[in-house]
Amino acid sequence: HVQLVESGGESVQTGGSLRLSCGASPNTISNYVMGWFRQAPEKEREGVAAIDSEGDPHYEDSVQGRFKISKDNANSLLFLHMTNLKPEDSATYYCAAAACETEEWDDFQYHGQGTQVTVS
User: Fold this and answer.
1) Which of 95, 104, 41, 42 is nearest to 70 (CA)?
2) How buried is residue 86: exposed, middle or buried, by Cβ count under 10 Å (0-12/13-18/19+)?
3) Which residues contact 93 (CB under 8 A, 6 or more apart)?
4) 3-state secondary structure string, the chain?
5) Which residues, 6+ apart, have CB-to-CB distance to 116 below 8 Å?
6) For every one of its 120 residues, what pLDDT tens digit does the chain have, with 9 covering 90 and above?
7) Nearest alpha-carbon partner for 79 in 15, 35, 47, 32
8) What are φ and ψ of residue 105, in 5° steps?
9) pLDDT of the residue at 102
């Protein structure tokens, strides 16, 4: 059973930085494709960054150059380093996992409970 627990969300000023963390059940980070999604009020949940089992990252255009996804396989941790934050980055951020090698956001079937990021 895959368990994902996010932390690190808080309120920050425009232009600020945050690091989100996700603790996962053993072997999840190393064996699954991992990702970060976000959902703003009255909007659909969207994928913003992913990292595959080899450590290769992928970013959506909206965060490219500002966000960096990384992972610590040994400690089963996933991170999202966010810089130059904008008000439109405000959302609940979710850690997610896909059991197959994929480039499709719909394949991320496991999501955590989320952590709130507010940029103002």
Assistant:
1) 95
2) middle
3) 6, 9, 20, 36, 37, 38, 80, 114, 115, 116, 117
4) CCCEEEECCCEECCCCCEEEEEEECCCHHHHCEEEEEEECCCCCCEEEEEECCCCCEEECCCCCCCEEEEEECCCCEEEEEECCCCHHHCEEEEEEEECCCCCCHHHCCEECCCEEEEEC
5) 9, 10, 91, 92, 93
6) 899 999 999 999 999 999 999 999 988 888 899 999 999 999 999 999 999 989 999 999 999 999 999 999 999 999 999 999 999 999 999 999 998 888 899 999 999 999 999 999
7) 35
8) -60, -30
9) 85
Residue with tokens 């997610």: 96
What tokens appear for 118 in the block?
């507010």
